[in-house]
């Protein structure tokens, strides 16, 4: 190993390593492999992801900035515990922003962008029918990315992406509930149809309704969950 590093030369380092660690940790938090309150130890993360300790630290710093991870004085980093009320508040903000993006997408989408939205929806329909929930989750994220791309509203897109990181785990857990994938498919189909037909009011309403269904589900949970 290089003198003074204390880490094997095979470990990734630099910007690529930080991105690898950041994405893998975000995915683990989202899917529940790493749970709220769980400690995140830099050397352990580095070993698990094949990156240097410094790269793991930088990835943690980025997730702290997003509100997904927190540092506790004298105790280190841990996955942030979020209350149901905080998740609802974020979803309410998302509702406004997603509505804006859907409206802008309906106004600005090109034929090619509409085709990509419809193709993604077709893939989601198949994944729902085959009960491939992990694939469903990835396709839902792709739907939101495609809407944002068509909207051409960079600030709203950046805000949505930042907020999504904080509630991704809750949204993924919601998708696992019986019937939720089918409901989500129907809601997103309404967004895509409105965007494809350049009906701005309908697109905004459909996007807001999709977020409202998530808010309603969160409010039905017992307090403290």
What features would you describe in this structure?
The protein is mainly alpha-helical and 225 residues long. It has 2 domains: 14-79, Arc Repressor Mutant, subunit A; 84-220, Up-down Bundle (Four Helix Bundle (Hemerythrin (Met), subunit A)), CATH 1.20.120.530. The protein has 9 helices and 3 strands. It has helices spanning 14-31, 42-49, 53-66, 84-108, 111-129, 133-151, 154-175, 180-196, 200-220, and strands at 39-40, 69-72, 76-79. Strand 2 and strand 3 form a beta hairpin. Helix 5 runs antiparallel to helix 6. The N and C termini lie far apart (47 Å).
What is the C-level CATH assignment of the largest domain? Mainly Alpha
Total count of domains: 2
Q: Helicity level, as a percent range?
A: over 70%
Main sheet, how many strands, which sense, barrel? 3 strands, antiparallel
SSE class: mainly alpha
Mean pLDDT: 90
Please name the defining characteristics of this protein:
single chain; 225 residues; mainly alpha; Arc Repressor Mutant, subunit A; Four Helix Bundle (Hemerythrin (Met), subunit A); three-stranded antiparallel β-sheet; 9 helices
Give a brief rundown of this model:
This protein has 225 residues and is mainly α. It has helices at residues 14-31, 42-49, 53-66, 84-108, 111-129, 133-151, 154-175, 180-196, 200-220; strands at residues 39-40, 69-72, 76-79.
